[in-house]
Design goal:
The structure holds 2 protein chains of 2 kinds. Chain A is mostly helical. Chain A is built from 5 helices and 2 strands, in the order H-H-H-E-E-H-H. Chain A is extended, with a radius of gyration of 20 Å. Chain B has 2 domains: 157 residues, no CATH class; 48 residues, no CATH class. Classes of the chains: A mainly alpha, B mainly alpha.
Chain lengths: 103, 231
């Protein structure tokens, strides 16, 4: 029973965080500095999530050889910059990873 | 765009990420059972909490018999970045009735946000599209939700019989790269990305994803602090 209550509380907290600003919109006037931060949220958040997946190997920062995911990620970054195509980027990233893991 | 088209656009945009999310869902199912959580509760947690890293943490802390207050606080910290997503999409959802806001807030995960946000940013305010834009977020949110439930179910039912070492998780950072790179069209945005990336890597060892949250904040500040180019 305890476990179900714990899950429920955690669910409410998670939902509350996600609902917070959506619910408050229109009821408060956000300060200007806060509104200027918001256009950068997608870039900062998604980059911060992805970067450790590329640069860390089992918790160690490895920039150079011995880290195929870093180089495959760089290939994906170049492909994304040139062609702006999601599936092509993912495909090339995976191809690069599998090729580098074979070396 | 009609609602159905917007919904399908969101659904399609989240599909590549399901490739990366599915192994996580399976592993979560396995970890939850190993932590002594009954199969039914492990499944229910994917609907009630519906937050990948928080569910892993919750399962591990329950398994370790951690104090309740610590567990609850940790789950809150892990999900802190979602408040920024909430602020980011709030203007687009402002005109909606409360039931829509509640539904979309429930579905507001990293992946659903990532899949929808390029399309939401492309919609001009006060255009006819703006009134239907929430269907894009609903499409990506629903797709991720359904995929997460199926992956969890597979993990709970089949568990260790499934191969979990295929490297499919790499689809997530690759999709995020495909989304973020085309967005970088100014020095300020480039600076936000570089600072967020560097900080996230250096602070990755911090507990409860605090390093991730600090890195996102650092990226935001770096983007704003960058002087605008004067031509």
């Amino acid at each position: 029973m305890n476990l179900w209550w714990l899950m429920l509380v955690c669910g409410v907290i998670t939902f509350g965080i996600r609902y917070s600003f959506i619910a408050a919109e229109g009821h408060y006037q956000p300060p200007t500095w806060f509104r200027r931060l918001l256009p950068f949220v997608p870039i900062a958040a998604l980059t911060a999530i992805a970067a450790p997946e590329l640069a860390l190997v089992q918790g160690e920062i490895i920039l150079g050889g011995g880290n195929p995911r870093l180089w495959a990620g760089l290939v994906a970054i170049i492909v994304a910059a040139l062609w702006r195509n999601t599936l092509l980027t993912i495909g090339c990233g995976f191809l690069a990873l599998f090729a580098l893991q074979r070396i | 765009m009609r609602p159905a088209e917007s919904f399908v656009l969101g659904l399609r945009s989240v599909m590549p990420m399901l490739l990366g999310v599915a192994p996580f869902g399976v592993i979560y199912g396995v970890v939850a059972l190993q932590s002594g959580i009954p199969a039914l509760a492990a499944m229910a947690m994917s609907s009630i909490v519906f937050a990948g890293s928080a569910q892993f943490l919750l399962a591990q802390l329950v398994g370790a018999g951690a104090p309740l207050l610590l567990t609850v606080g940790a789950v809150g910290l892990v999900n802190l970045r979602h408040a920024l997503y909430s602020a980011s999409v709030a203007p687009v959802l402002a005109h909606l009735p409360r039931r829509w806001k509640i539904l979309l807030a429930y579905l507001l995960t990293d992946e659903a946000y990532a899949a929808a946000i390029p399309h939401l940013m492309a919609v001009k305010p006060d255009s006819p599209q703006a009134t239907q834009a929430h269907w894009i977020l609903f499409g990506s949110g629903f797709g991720l939700w359904a995929g997460w439930q199926l992956a969890t179910l597979a993990g709970v039912l089949l568990g260790a019989q499934l191969p979990s070492n295929l490297g499919l998780e790499f689809a997530l950072p690759l999709t995020f790269i495909a989304i973020v790179v085309p967005m970088i069209d100014s020095r300020a945005r480039l600076m936000a990305a570089l600072v967020a990336a560097a900080a996230a890597v250096v602070l990755a060892a911090m507990p409860y994803k605090l390093g991730l949250f600090i890195a996102v904040m650092a990226g935001l500040v770096a983007g704003v602090a960058m002087p605008r180019r004067v031509n």
